[in-house]
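Issue: copy button drops trailing tokens. Both records pasted manually instead:
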Amino acid sequence: MAGEKRDFNAAAATWDENPGRVKMAHDVARAIIGTIQPEPAMDVLDFGCGTGLLTLALQPHVRTITAVDSSQGMLDVLDAKIKAQGLKNVRTRRVDMEQGDELTGTFDLAVSSMTFHHIRDTGMLLDRIAGVLKPAGRIAVADLDSDEGKFHDTNEGVFHSGFDRHMMMKSFSAAGFVSVRNRTAAILPKPGPDGIVRTFTVFLMTGEKGK
């Protein structure tokens, strides 16, 4: 359903100027904090971190965050924020799994917001994330409920028109996650190209790495 990969480098400089995008990241962060209750000893992976809106919201609550993205442009924006704020517990890493890069490290918690619909093989990604989590490590993924392809103005780089929560729960289980739960994390009114404002919902799905 999608064309070639979207050029997120070109979008990076103005990414944070969208107030709806910023609010959604804060809503997702609030849902993760309320559900996971991150602790000061936690090492966290943020997969598909973009400009770090979620990363920086979670940063005060945990020991370290490794912010991973395939777009160097996005990471450059986040690096500038890290430097400006003098943060010592946030590091960035460029990982493009379509180019053969691997996820590495060991984490207590992996989070991801609005990234899975840009991933061709989400089952593989869940397997890779499970592989870098400690025993009983946690996962928290936020993404769109099924949206009939109407959320994005262009489907460039979009491989899923949102997700059915039941099917996503099955994918979590197939990757070895247990105690899988979901909730609504954000509600997004968004005008389409036709001028009609539609309401989209973002779920938060959580689970724990099984034995």
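Record 2 (pasted manually too):
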Amino acid sequence: MMQNSNVLFKQITHGVYVIAVANGSEQNAFTAAWVMQVSFDPPIIAFSINPEHYSYQLLKASGVCTVNVLGQDHLAIAAHFGQSGVKEKMTTYRWQAGKTAAPVLSASLAYFDCKLSHFTDAGDHKIAVCEVIAAAELNSGWPLLYGQTGNMDGSSEYYKD
């Protein structure tokens, strides 16, 4: 007997991140769980991004971003950046500039400062493939896992039998 694959997607383990983008003085950030390393040499990260969102437009224009690793005590941060259409979303938390000038979330466990290589189509999202230019650990702790966020992202509507 085969179960609905959407139900089983919650069993795939992955972390929770804040992707921050900037294009000049314009900045935005969003919560992402679909992030992975794809190469050691050069170091490359890929993540999924909704092309309908403002962050996609900024990333496309500037070609730079940071991938900020959230800790298990960062559920409120994940929820904040998971909201769409919030004005002044960036002012709630402290940021520092990365090597690429993309914002780095000071509260994150670690960050990867990236330069966009290319996008690839993936259903209703795009996959951003990015070379890591700089990275550092900022704070200690255990990473927040997607399965620990419950229905924060409203995905339960996709996980029905």
